[in-house]
Amino acid sequence: MAQDSIGRTSRRGLLTGGAGLALAGSLPSFAQAPAAPVSPPPKTLIDVHHHLLPPAYLKLKEDAVRKQSQGTEYVLEWTPQQSLDIMDKAGVRVAMASLSAPGPWFGDKAEARKLSRISNEYGAQFVAAHPDRFGTFASIPLPDVEGSIAEIDYAYDKLKADGICLMTSYDGLYPGDPAFAKVFDALNRRKAVVYFHPTTPACCSNTEPDIAATILEFPFDTTRAIASLLYSGTMSRCPDIRWIFSHGGGALPALASRLARWVQLRPALASRLPNGPEAELKKLYFDTKDMTNPASFAALMVMAGPEHILFGTDYPYGRVLPDLAQLRDRRLSEADTQAIGHLNAERLFPRLKLA
Q1: What phi and psi values does residue 160 have, to the nearest 5 degrees?
Q2: Dihedral of alpha carbons 242, 244, 245, 251, sign
């Protein structure tokens, strides 16, 4: 099948993929698969945690990506067609593509602006080539506030991005820092969907030298980011932002009640949370990556409820098919299966709804 530099194929070609579609049709439900073959359902999975590697970005930052990938060299060989192939095998109808850690910030404002623009324009071309299969979260050059606001405007007005991707911290600054307030005010005016991906925190990159930061520190940096947004008052001040946190919110399922109780011990913080911390935490969305094992998924369901959980794979870093099989083993009701698989995402991104 003919492809161009970003893996363009015809929609007809995608829809007549024979064996690929047969397998795709067998996997979109998390419920126990029936013994007899069934017709593909009218709606399939939406993956909100799916990464792209723009060639120009990779050319400039291959060493940083290689270090972050912790030996997963296959990531450096990613192509759009590989994404399409795994989506077809897993029954993913649409993937929301984003730049993974370390993102566009490497300490230089001009470079961060350039890398953000390179990544966002590539993502827009990616979506234009496959409009029925992909959406994008645009990157912005935080902690450069002026550059970030300009890139938000460009991403929405020119590139028609679906949302914005942020890292959980930037050089030790967390998203609730007052320095970033104007950025979140701009996102609130846009009623933006803001997706957070973890990164290696400045504080704790080598606490356990034998354990990669991606394994140990990523979940805790996500939790720090949530705490920062909550107790800075950013979540309350920006009620029109829809927040998505990857990897099930990191350690939040275990720490949510402990974190919420903090306002009782520090009453001076109450004015920043007029609706209380629990009300703000209940608004958040979380993806399923690394949360499909029985204990983690049970905790996530109790904390967030099925209406605030989204399907996510972390491709090409994540194990898509084994994670999907594990999620199916949770034996969810059909209503919860559909909610997590695609309905919750469709509410956040109405353009993804099938006609």
Answers
A1: 60, 45
A2: positive
Number of domains in the chain: 1
170 CB neighbour count, 10 Å cutoff = 23
Give the separation between CA 134 and CA 94, rounded to whole angstroms: 5
CATH of the domain at 186: 3.20.20.140
Per-residue pLDDT of the chain (355 residues; tens, 9 = 90+): 444 445 544 333 333 333 333 333 333 444 444 444 544 433 589 999 999 999 999 888 888 887 776 666 667 788 999 999 999 999 999 999 999 999 999 999 999 999 999 999 999 999 999 999 999 999 999 999 999 999 999 999 999 999 999 999 999 999 999 999 999 999 999 999 999 999 988 888 778 888 888 888 999 999 999 999 999 999 999 999 999 999 999 999 999 999 999 999 999 999 999 999 999 999 999 999 999 999 999 999 999 999 999 999 999 999 999 999 999 999 999 999 999 999 999 999 999 998 6
Supply the pTM of this predicted model. Answer: 0.87
Cis check: omega of the bond before 316, within 30 degrees of 0? yes
Domain, as residue range, for 281: 43-352
Is the Cβ–Cβ distance between 230 and 174 less than 8 Å?
A: no
Tokens for 222, please give them: 């996500």
Token digits of residue 173: 């600054």
In a domain, 317, yes or no: yes
Q: Is residue 102 included in any domain, yes or no?
A: yes
Question: Are 306 and 336 spatial neighbours (Cβ–Cβ below 8 Å)?
Answer: yes
